[in-house]
């Protein structure tokens, strides 16, 4: 999460990503290669999703179509808590969701 924050906040790529997300045409007119930014963004996203899948499979021991049903609520919570206007806010949402999940588990135990 810290690496994502640093990428989005302090690098030229992060600045280009934020500019492209805010107004693609204006970013292109300012000299940002928006096509390249979008391609790199998708590549980073795919890599992080692949890494998350590998870590999940290692932790769970197996993987099938219903393995992630438990995480659907947490993913939606991270999306809504983070919001589209603040690119680094979703980084704090998973920790909040994890805390809520741990509290729920403690009360059911």
How would you summarize the topology of this molecule?
Layout: H1 2-10, H2 12-22, H3 24-29, H4 34-60, H5 72-82, H6 93-108
Outline of this structure?
It is built from six helices and no strands. With 109 residues, the protein is mainly α.
Describe the structure.
With 109 residues, the chain is mainly α. The chain folds into two domains: 1-64, no CATH class; 68-109. The chain contains six helices and no strands. Helix 1 (2-10) crosses helix 2 (12-22), helix 2 (12-22) packs across helix 4 (34-60) and helix 5 crosses helix 6 (93-108). The protein is elongated, with a radius of gyration of 17 Å. The model has no long low-confidence stretch (mean pLDDT 77).
Key features?
109 residues; 6 helices; mainly alpha; single chain
Mean pLDDT level: 77
Q: Report the sheet-strand fraction.
A: under 5%
**How many domains make up the coordinates?**
2
User: Helix coverage percent of residues?
Assistant: over 70%
Low-confidence stretches: none
Helix and strand composition category: mainly alpha
Radius of gyration: 17 Å
Largest sheet: none
Question: Can you count the helices?
Answer: 6
Helix and strand pattern? HHHHHH
Measure the end-to-end span.
30 Å
Characterize the overall form.
Answer: elongated
Number of DSSP strand runs: 0
């Amino acid at each position: 999460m810290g690496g994502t924050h640093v990428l989005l906040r302090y690098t030229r790529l992060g600045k280009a990503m934020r500019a492209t997300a805010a107004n693609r045409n204006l970013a292109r007119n300012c000299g940002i290669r928006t096509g390249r930014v979008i391609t790199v963004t998708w590549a980073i996203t795919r890599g992080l999703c692949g890494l998350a899948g590998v870590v999940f499979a290692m932790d769970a021991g197996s993987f099938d179509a219903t393995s992630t049903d438990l995480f659907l609520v947490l993913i939606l919570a991270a999306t809504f808590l983070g919001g589209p206007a603040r690119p680094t806010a979703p980084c704090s949402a998973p920790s909040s969701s994890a805390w809520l999940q741990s509290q729920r588990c403690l009360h059911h135990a």
